[in-house]
Amino acid sequence: MLKLKCFFDNKDLAKMILENWEYDLASIDMFNFYRISSNAVYPFKYKGKTRFLRFSPVGEKDINNLVGELDFIRFLMSRDYPALSIIVSKNNEEFIEVYTPWGDFYAVVFERVDGVQLGEIEYTPEICKKHGSYLGKLHKLSSDYKPITKLRWTYEDVFLWIDKELSNLSYDISAIEEIKILETYLSKIPKNEKNFGLIHYDFELDNVFYDQAKDVLNIIDFDDAMYHWYAMDIERALDSIKNEIPKENYFLMKDSFIKGYNEEFNVTDEMLSYLPIFRRFANLYAYTRILRSTAEVWNNEPDWLTEIRGKLNIAMEQRSKFFGKPIQ
After folding, report:
1. Which end of the chain, N or C, is more open, meaning fewer C-beta atoms within 10 Å of its C-beta?
2. What is the CATH number of domain 116-319?
3. Residue 227: other Cβ atoms inside 10 A
4. Which residues is 109 bridged to in the sheet?
5. What is the mean pLDDT of residues 153-172?
6. pLDDT tens per residue, range 96-135
7. In this predicted model, what pLDDT tens digit does every residue of 259-299 receive, in sequence order?
8. Which of 26, 36, 1, 3 is closest to 13 using CA atoms?
9. Rounded mean pLDDT of the chain?
10. Which residue has the higher pLDDT, 171 or 169?
11. Could you give the count of Cα atoms lying within 13 Å of 2 in the half-sphere of its Cβ?
C-alpha cells in the first residue's frame, strides 16, 4: 500500500508518464476511473483496446521485485498460463523510470484481460473449483520456474522489512513479539519444490476474471508475489472467498476450492494445517503496510482522506487482534 500522500489524483502526472506509450488521445477521459492503492492505476485505450498504466514513486518500490514480477509474468505467458500481457513502451521497454516535477516513478502498462471479476459474478461451487484449479496450475508452473537469480523477495525479506518499518514508526509493541513468534514457527516448517516457491500472494476474487465465452480464468496483479509456502496463496484465496459469501456456504466452497487445486497440484493435509499461521503472517504484513501508509498526518485533510484513514485504522485493529498470542 502506498503512503496516503500518494492517494491524490494527478491526471497531469499520469498523462506525462503515458506519453512513453502509444495511446488514443480521446481515451484520456478514462482517467476519471483511476484507482490508487499499492500503485496508481489509470485506464486508457490504444486502437480501441483497453490498457492500464500502473505507476508508483521510486521510493515506494523495490526495483528487483518489479523486474522479478515481469520476468515471472513472461514465464507464465510462455507456458500458456492466462496472465495479463505486458505492453512495451515506444522505446521497446517493459517498464521505465520516469523523472517528473512530482518526483521519480516506475511505470508499466498492461493489457486489459477478458472477463469479469469473480467478485462480480455468482460465485458457485463450480466456479470456486475452477478458481482453485487455476491456483494449482500456477503453483505447478512456479515449481518449474528457475530464474537465473531470485529477483522477488522471500517471506524472510518481508520479516526484515516489517522489523525495519516498525522501528521507524509508532506501533503496538506486540507486533515485535508477533515477528519473533512467526519467524520461530515458520523456520520449522519443511521446504521443498512441492510446497515452497514463488506465489501470487493476492489470488483473491478481484484479481481473477472469468471469461464465460471461453470458460477460462484470467489472472492479474502479480505485484505482491514473493517466495513462500504455496499454502500461503491458498489461505489468501480462501480468506477472500470467506469475506464474499454467506457463512453457511464457506466449508462447501473451501472443499470445492481444495478439490480443484488438487486436480492440478497437490497440497497435503499437513500444509493445510498451517493455514492459521499463514493468516497471522498476512495480518502482520498488512498491519505494517497500513501503519506505514497512515503514519504521516496533515492538517485540514479532505473528508475522503479522513474516511479512508478511519477504515484503515479499523483494519489495523482487526489484524493486530492476536499479536503476541502463543501458537497452539
Report:
1. C
2. 3.90.1200.10
3. 20
4. 53, 87
5. 91
6. 999 999 999 999 999 999 999 999 999 999 999 999 999 9
7. 999 999 999 999 999 999 999 999 999 999 999 999 988 88
8. 36
9. 95
10. 169
11. 20
What CATH number does the domain located at 4-111 have? 3.30.200.20
Domain extents in the chain? 4-111, 116-319
Residue type, 267: V
Above 90 in pLDDT, residue 217?
Answer: yes
Where does 145-274 have alpha helices with state H?
Answer: 155-167, 174-186, 230-242, 250-264, 269-272
The 3-state secondary structure of 49-72, one letter per residue:
EEEEEEEEEHHHCCHHHHHHHHHH
C-alpha cell at 6: 500518494
CA distance 158 to 61: 13
Q: Is 238 exposed, middle or buried (0-12, 13-18, 19+ CB in 10 A)?
A: buried
Q: CA-to-CA distance for 21 and 4, rounded, in angstroms?
A: 27
C-alpha cell at 195: 510446497
- Reported as a single tens digit per residue, the pLDDT across 53-99 is 999 999 999 999 999 999 999 999 999 999 999 999 999 999 999 99
